[in-house]
Amino acid sequence: MPIVTIQVTREGNTPGTSAVTADEKARLIKGASELLREVLNKPLEATFVVIQEVETENWGWGGLPVEAYRRQKALKPG
């Protein structure tokens, strides 16, 4: 019984959204489940997928909160 945990930041990917949409979550669940079926021959009904949305202030990258890291990266050339 595989359990897949997908962690994403809580922010929208399209204008007017502030989180992962229900459709995007459904696609993630389907894709992860199908990957385990294809690679490990695990039946779809035996696979559990958990999606955790994390506020960006609770996500760090490169020693900084993610928003600060993104600002810093945007300032660097190349």
TrEMBL record:
4-oxalocrotonate tautomerase-like domain: residues covered: 2-68
Record-listed E.C. numbers: 5.3.2.-
Keywords of this entry: Isomerase
Keyword field contains Ubl conjugation: no
GO molecular function: isomerase activity
Matching InterPro entries: 4-OT-like_dom, Tautomerase/MIF_sf
Family the UniProt entry places it in: Belongs to the 4-oxalocrotonate tautomerase family.
Official protein name in the record: Tautomerase
Organism field: Caballeronia choica
